[in-house]
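Example complex used in Figure S2.
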Amino acid sequence: MSKTILAVDDSPSMRMLLRAALTERGYAVAEAEDGVAALEWLDSNAPHLVITDINMPRMDGFGLIEELRTRPRFRDMPILVLTTESSDEKKARARQAGATGWIVKPFDPEKLASAIRRVSH
Amino acid sequence: MNAPAATTLHRPPEQRINVLQGTSFVTDDPAVVLTTVLGSCIACCLYDPHARVGGMNHFLLSEPRHGRMRDDGEAERYGLYAMELLVNEMLKRGASRSWLRAHLYGGANLHAGMHAIGTDNGRFARDFLIKDGIELSQANIGGNTPRRVDFRAALGQVRCRIVQADARIDENRAPQPPRSSGDVELF
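Predicted assembly (308 residues):
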């Protein structure tokens, strides 16, 4: 059974690109448009890993990560941030919130797949 | 009865900012005019009439190799990056995704007989706006002549002119993603 990855990004184009890159590598992909939609989906699903953007409406990536880390069943789940942001300050904030890794867009599908493999338990 | 005093519309001094290929700029300052000259590149101008903020980017998909666009998704990833940078900066300045209005300019095919990269750029930009649900208010793309675009971003006012074919166009450089693009850092 393929592992499921939740892709959280407010851009449908970016979600489509992620879906294409990940399904090609054997993953099942679920999508959410922001942190709120992600939490709703996560109420009844348990993905293998979450990839989240930072800048999103309603709930941004920082808020999503912080919220997930308060929930015991998501405490150890890998969460990769995929963002256009590259400032050290935001990277440190993501790390403090509980992110597992930080990837700067535009992403290289091979590097993304490699990161997923490295953080997979 | 005194005659009403003459009123003069006050327009702040204009500040022109040249938006070079691979960059974007967002502002809520009505004095700022974003300007660029385009050949096959695309400039997307976004405006939120409620937040009164606007911005422009200027991008070119990957250069064609051996007469063909690369088909490994790299071009699309770069174009998406250019669009997302602009959209994100608009949202940070108070714009709302649902109020964004877009104008597209450029996408000319300047050199007959070569791959129609301008057409590819225009198609990509239109597709992005459709997929991301951003309303396209105006498009002046295609053809075979360069354009100059002046965008008073905070007011949403655009002027697009055809310019001489030998106009200096900032399209000599290959697309330059950020130095850190694609980098992975695991904590």
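Helices of chain B lie at 74-92, 117-131. The interface with chain A takes residues 73, 76-78, 80-81, 83-85, 87-88, 91-92, 96-97, 127-128, 131-133, 177-178, 180-187 of chain B (CB under 8 Å).
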